[in-house]
């Protein structure tokens, strides 16, 4: 039996979640206050880049299971569950800004007329559900009505570039509830997705809220740990790839998220690490490991520039540097907190000319940097006349380029591999000066 759902927020989480719920046969209305975004979706234009999402949106819209609106009131009487998937941007102190989350709660409280569940899918600090519940209750009290409702927490664990698979075939689904009624409703919703293996972990709401932050902080910790080890490997003459294989072979550690590079970025790890550290401070303690994770990552974002400066020396001022990859990771156009932005900014400040190429993030780069850099049509176009090439994003199309063609196009021969995907011997045999992360 299908469920009628409203999802507030058509950003990355909201649009992917709503589309995938509709794909499973549910009736979904995606709501956003941004009229231009809703108009674009109604016209078949997807505001984010995610492989396969455009086809799913098109198919479910045509089937009548997926609708878009700016007005929660237009559907609230018919829905059983409302998901809140609005943004929680960091405040100046690093804490999560709950303004939009609480706006949704207040609107929910003003509109509901029957038992409905408000599920927070946004990443929010522990204790947010209590604030959401209080906001709803205040609106009901102002109405003089006692409409039954529940709140729940259902944090998302979607990886950009792989979000559809993550949603439809998840490692686990975390749900925090306070009542059997809410738990039964969430079980009915997720059971069709997980028929063969029901991987829903039910828990109390504070634990669900904490799980999301703790998971992202753990993954970020592994990245910063390996980058710290990589930098030490360079100093002592060790090879970080060999070290990674050695420690990753231990079943207690495993291979995932142990790759050295130029730092993490995106919409989740930087924001969530800061917010978790801030939550600890608000409760009178310091998460010293988590705070160190952030410091290491901020330092690591500059490592590609430091290596370029080391290779080009005084020649950096007036040089031309090709930057391959702008998004914080492959299969997305997301440049939030991207290491490429740090490197490009430092190159421009040093007086270098920067030529850039990314398979999907060029428009986003234009929005952020305007005409400060030169936009190229391909990797080979970007390296034309360049003194150095810096790899910032490990797109598949960058893995095995025609090096002879790149050598002929470049003026210089310096290459900094910020993602450790190229072969030193191959490049040095061709006459390139090559350096990577964690290898002397």
Query: Strand tally, please?
Result: 14
Overall shape: elongated
Question: What's the architecture of the largest domain, going by CATH?
Answer: 3-Layer(aba) Sandwich
- What's the CATH C level of the largest domain? Alpha Beta
Spatial order of the strands in the main sheet? 3-2-1-4-5-6
CATH homologous superfamily of the largest domain?
A: NAD(P)-binding Rossmann-like Domain
Report the structural category.
Answer: alpha/beta
CA radius of gyration is 24 Å
- Give the total of domains: 3
**Main beta-sheet strand count, sense and barrel state:** 6 strands, parallel
Q: Please name the CATH topology of the largest domain.
A: Rossmann fold
pLDDT under 50 segments (min length 5)? Answer: none
Explain what you see:
It is a single chain. The protein has 440 residues and is an alpha/beta fold. It folds into three domains: 4-203, 3-Layer(aba) Sandwich (Rossmann fold); 213-299, NAD(P)-binding Rossmann-like Domain (Rossmann fold), CATH 3.40.50; 301-436, Rossmann fold (3-Layer(aba) Sandwich). It has 17 helices and 14 strands. The strands form three sheets. The protein has a six-stranded parallel beta sheet with strand order 3-2-1-4-5-6, sandwiched between helices. A six-stranded parallel beta sheet has the order 11-10-9-12-13-14. Helix 7 links the parallel strand 7 and strand 8 (200-203). Helix 4 runs parallel beside helix 5 and helix 10 (269-282) runs antiparallel to helix 11 (288-300). The longest helix has 32 residues, at 205-236. The protein is elongated, with a radius of gyration of 24 Å. The N and C termini lie far apart (60 Å). The mean pLDDT is 94.
């Amino acid at each position: 039996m299908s469920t009628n759902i409203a999802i507030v927020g058509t950003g990355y989480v909201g649009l992917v979640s709503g589309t995938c719920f509709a794909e499973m046969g549910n009736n979904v209305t995606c709501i956003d206050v941004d009229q231009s975004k809703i108009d674009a979706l109604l016209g078949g234009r997807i505001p984010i880049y995610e492989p396969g999402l455009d086809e799913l949106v098109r198919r479910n819209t045509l089937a009548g299971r997926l609708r878009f609106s700016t007005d929660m009131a237009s559907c609230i009487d018919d829905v059983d569950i409302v998901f809140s998937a609005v943004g929680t941007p960091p405040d100046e102190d690093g804490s999560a800004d709950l303004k939009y989350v609480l706006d949704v709660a207040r609107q929910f409280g003003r509109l509901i007329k029957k038992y409905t569940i408000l599920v927070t899918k946004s990443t929010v600090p522990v204790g947010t559900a209590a604030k959401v519940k209080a906001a709803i209750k205040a609106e009901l009290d102002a109405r003089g009505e006692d409409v039954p409702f529940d709140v729940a927490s259902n944090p998302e664990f979607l990886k950009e570039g792989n979000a559809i698979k993550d949603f439809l075939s998840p490692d686990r689904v975390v749900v925090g509830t306070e009542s059997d009624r809410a738990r039964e409703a969430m079980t009915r919703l997720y059971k069709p997705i997980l028929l063969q293996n029901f991987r829903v972990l039910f828990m109390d709401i504070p634990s669900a809220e904490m799980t999301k932050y703790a998971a992202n902080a753990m993954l970020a910790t592994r990245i910063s740990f390996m980058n710290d080890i990589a930098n030490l490997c360079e100093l002592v003459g060790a090879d970080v790839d060999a070290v990674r294989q050695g420690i990753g072979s231990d079943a207690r550690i495993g291979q995932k998220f142990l790759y050295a590079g130029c730092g993490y970025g995106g919409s989740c790890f930087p924001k969530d690490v800061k917010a978790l550290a801030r939550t600890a401070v608000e409760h009178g303690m310091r998460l010293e490991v988590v705070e160190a994770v952030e410091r290491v990552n901020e330092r690591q974002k500059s490592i590609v520039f430091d290596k370029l400066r080391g290779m080009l020396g005084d020649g950096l001022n007036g040089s031309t540097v090709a930057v391959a990859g702008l998004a914080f990771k492959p299969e997305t156009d997301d440049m939030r907190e991207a290491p490429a932005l740090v490197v490009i900014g430092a190159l421009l400040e040093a007086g270098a000319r920067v030529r850039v190429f990314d398979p999907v993030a060029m428009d986003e780069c234009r929005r952020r940097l305007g005409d400060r850099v030169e936009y190229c049509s391909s990797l080979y176009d970007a390296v034309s006349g360049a003194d150095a090439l810096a790899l910032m994003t490990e797109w598949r199309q960058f893995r095995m380029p025609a090096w002879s063609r790149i050598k002929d196009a470049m003026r210089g021969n310096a290459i900094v591999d910020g993602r450790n995907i190229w072969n030193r011997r191959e490049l040095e045999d061709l006459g390139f000066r090559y350096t990577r992360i964690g290898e002397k």
